[in-house]
Known about the structure:
The complex is a heterodimer of chains A (262) and B (201). With 262 residues, chain A is of the alpha/beta class. Chain A folds into two domains: 32-132, Elongation Factor Tu (Ef-tu), domain 3 (Beta Barrel); 144-261, Rossmann fold. Chain A contains five helices and eleven strands. Chain A has helices spanning 32-36, 111-118, 154-165, 213-221, 236-248, and strands at 39-48, 53-59, 71-77, 83-89, 99-105, 125-132, 144-149, 172-178, 194-198, 229-235, 256-261. The two termini of chain A are 30 Å apart. Chain B contains three helices and eleven strands; from the N terminus they run E-E-E-H-E-E-H-E-E-E-E-E-E-H. In chain B, strands 1, 4, 5, 8, 9 and 10 form a six-stranded mixed sheet that branches. Chain B has one domain: Sulfite Oxidase, Chain A, domain 2. Classes of the chains: A alpha/beta (262), B mainly beta (201).
Amino acid sequence: MTDTPTPPAGAGPAAWTPPTRFAVPGRIAVSNRAAATWQRAVLTDIRRETPRAATFRFAVPRWAGHLPGQHLMLRLRAPDGYVAQRHYSIASPPDDLGHVELTLDHVDGGEVSGWFHTVAKPGDEVELRGPLSGFFAWPGDRPALLLGAGSGVVPLMSMVRHHRARNLAVPLRLLVSARGPEELVYASEYGAETTAVFTRDAPPGVPVGRLSAAQVERLLADGPDGGWEAYVCGSNGFAEHASRLLVGAGQPVDRIRIERFG
Amino acid sequence: MSVTRGFAGRPRVRNDGLPPGQYDAGDDWPVLSAEVTPELAPAQWTLTVDGLVAEPRTWTWDEAHALPPSAYEGDIHCVTSWSKFGVRFGGVSLDAFLELVRPAPEATHAVAYSHTGYTTNLPLADLTGGRAWIVWEYGDGPLPAEHGGPARLLVPHLYFWKSAKWIAGIRLLDHDEPGFWEQNGYHHRGNPWEEQRYSGD
């Protein structure tokens, strides 16, 4: 794992890569200007998804566009100048021009999610910057195997919606884990590409249990030529579980992208 | 920026240790690595310091532990807005490693890299003068794998993505070379007190 590095002869310093296994490369270049500029966003709609989660739709006229899987930073300001800011994954697909949607859990004691779930109404203004980070982005180019749990399905849903909106031929599969049917966000939107896993209670005829090695092995065995690009999103516990199953089933580590919710 | 209607925020606690835009995560320590947590035993771990140095060198786990111990007790700050107060990390000061390899006068920057291949860039000045460590203890126990164990770089005065987990090596350079997150839109230096989160900040 730590063989002596031998930089290629004549290569400039920028060509140097560490002697260790190579990190998962970023997917796209990101706009530094978009990342640095705060923009006003007007809340236009609120849709309930589950008892604890709702989708908030914003009009952002100067939004530069994003790729599925990217996130943004959002901030709220109190009258005394106190500012709270959070990172959120973007749920909406890129073709929804001039708009972004976020799906937020109501976190116990969460000052920002609490405001969204108890105070916010259409017409309210917040500030956003982004899109941020090219690492978890999916431009719709490579076959994608998506594994998400809870609100970790949010950036993956942007990918599913993009896949549908563009009618893309590239294979895409989604494994989504929820405690029970009531807590499955976007439940009415899933199609043949999706398998739902329920960890606490399940609809009649569906087994209860965690995402299993057999399920992951089956998806890898049925994968396209050249394999999948895997995207994993959820709590750290889920991310560790799912990434271990992927590695165990033969998915190369440099083709697993992980977004962990803190 | 205008005031958000109806937003009060959490009760204000005066905390001079909290950089702008950060909140106190309390007992939480979120894990945010973007790659699979590697299974790396101490016996497999090594640390190499090379590049613009007089004597490039690789330490095994036992060799690194033979250097004088040094601990950091204080705060850490993550770019995703959480800060964690009063943590303790134990290991060896990076100065002890650098003293033995002797950086060349033209060395100005470094790339730290992980056993996963993760990279991050730092000015050499941020790695010297008792401000950076190689650590293998958290609290009184071993550093957990998901937090970078068996050993990680610790540069607590910068955002925590600079503190490369599963540290494998540090290469000294005469120029700045963006690492993994820096190529993905993050700031080159990452000073939390100046809120250098993204490039352009």
